[in-house]
Design goal:
Layout (H helix, E strand, L loop, with lengths): L1 H14 L5 H117 L4 H20 L4 H18 L5 H15 L6 H13 L29 H14 L17 H23 L3 H18 L5 H14 L12 H32 L5 H37 L1
Helix pairs in contact: 2-11, 2-12, 3-4, 3-11, 4-5, 5-11, 6-8, 6-10, 8-9, 9-10
């Protein structure tokens, strides 16, 4: 500021050269005396302001430097603490990993030992099973004959009650009795007696030719369309006596009236009938009649296979009744149709089958005692060895032991990373 004032005075001096010399000399003397104290005052005030500004700048710089230095020291301490924490965590993780690896190795070695023991036990079980199979192969064929007889008796029961095939059931029981006879065992006399009773009971059952009955019903059903319908059926007329002419001459009047009456009846005849008249059937009614008779025969066919004797007889009786009522009885076709139905009506389609087979329960009990007890005795030791040889499932324990330390280490590392990022962000903010 002092320099600027001085420069202004220096530039102002040449401007005064244009004035007259006398005035210049006077003015220069007066100006010189006035400018000397003003310049001194301006120089002192400018120097004071500069020193104050310099002092403020130095104080502000020193304060900022001190504050930044303190913040830097704190951040360095935090970073050092975090590094120490990370190092501690890494050491803990390494220790946990080593412990986990050792534990997994121990578990694997234990599991391997158990698996090896299980394999050896399984091999022993296989050897024992092979020995048992060899023992079974070496036994007498009596057991196989007994099992075959049991199967044949069960098949006879299925044929009898499910299919109502008495012939096949009888043959199966005879085959089973033949197998028991081959055993030549006196202790099986009761079983053979029961089989003989069952065979006798089945042979006494009436064998119904179901297929033959059904075929005959189908043949009659196909002939319904060819049956001729009957004409209108009138009630019977009352019997009338024709008057006769006497031989006496005295009865000439009566004889004359009788002759005239007989002569007139040749032209007009009047007869009185009591009863209902059955009219002719229309073509539509004829169709319905044929369908109704066909349905009755179909019902009879179904009753044959279901052993429904009463339904069978009722259906055929209804078909006979309708045929006699609406068809021409003088036709040979109608007579043959009705005769065939009457013959089939006498057939017995209901059969009383035995409620149970005596031999079935006896042979089942015998098979349980002889065969299944042997198989149970063989299978129980094998099952016990297999249960002992079964190794425990160590895979879940090993997996859990491996995953737990890894999860802990991952969580710790993530926490340390977040803390380090927070410190770095704070440092950047303070620097700004």
């Amino acid at each position: 500021m002092t320099d600027k004032k001085i420069n202004t005075n220096q530039t102002a001096a040449p401007a005064a050269k244009d004035k007259p010399a006398v005035s210049a000399s006077k003015n220069s003397a007066s100006n010189a005396t006035k400018a000397a104290p003003a310049a001194a005052k301006q120089k002192k005030s400018g120097s004071k302001t500069g020193w104050v500004a310099i002092a403020l700048v130095l104080a502000l710089g020193g304060g900022l430097y001190y504050h930044g230095h303190q913040q830097g020291l704190q951040q360095q301490q935090q970073v050092a603490a975090l590094q120490q924490q990370i190092a501690t965590m890494k050491a803990a993780m390494q220790a946990d990993q080593q412990q986990t690896i050792s534990m997994v190795n121990d578990e694997l070695s234990t599991a391997q030992q158990k698996v090896e023991q299980g394999i050896s036990q399984q091999q022993k079980s296989i050897d024992s099973i092979q020995t048992a199979i060899a023992d079974l192969k070496g036994q007498e064929p009596n057991d196989w004959l007994l099992a075959e007889a049991d199967y044949l008796v069960k098949m006879a029961g299925r044929k009898l009650w499910l299919e109502h095939d008495v012939t096949s059931a009888t043959l199966l029981l005879e085959a089973a009795d033949h197998r028991i006879a081959e055993l030549n065992d006196p202790s099986l006399k009761g079983l053979r007696q029961a089989m003989s009773n069952d065979i006798t009971a089945l042979k006494s059952v009436t064998v119904v030719d179901r297929d033959g009955i059904v075929l005959r019903l189908n043949s009659l059903e196909n002939s319904i369309d060819n049956l001729p319908l009957a004409n209108a059926i009138l009630a019977k007329a009352e019997p009338q006596q024709n008057p006769t002419v006497s031989q006496s001459v005295n009865d000439w009047k009566n004889n004359l009236m009788t002759s005239l009456k007989n002569f007139s009846e040749n032209f007009i005849t009047y007869r009185k009938r009591d009863g209902s008249v059955v009219p002719l059937l229309s073509p539509q009614q004829d169709f319905y009649l044929q369908q109704n008779i066909t349905n009755k025969l179909e019902t009879a066919i179904a009753a044959v296979y279901r052993d429904q004797g009463q339904v069978y007889r009722d259906s055929i009786a209804t078909a006979i009744k309708w045929s006699q009522q609406y068809y021409d009885l003088s036709s040979p076709k109608t007579q043959s149709f009705i005769a065939g139905l009457q013959q089939l009506e006498q057939q017995n389609v209901a059969v009383d089958y035995p409620a149970k087979l005596q031999s079935q329960a006896l042979i089942t009990q015998l098979v349980n005692q002889v065969l299944r007890n042997k198989m149970t005795a063989i299978s129980e030791p094998v099952a016990a060895k297999t249960t002992q040889a079964a190794p425990k499932n160590v895979a879940p324990a090993v997996k859990k032991a491996v995953e737990k330390p890894i999860k802990q280490a991952t969580a710790t590392e993530n926490t340390a990373t977040k803390n380090k990022a927070a410190v770095t962000y704070t440092t950047k903010e303070e620097t700004k």
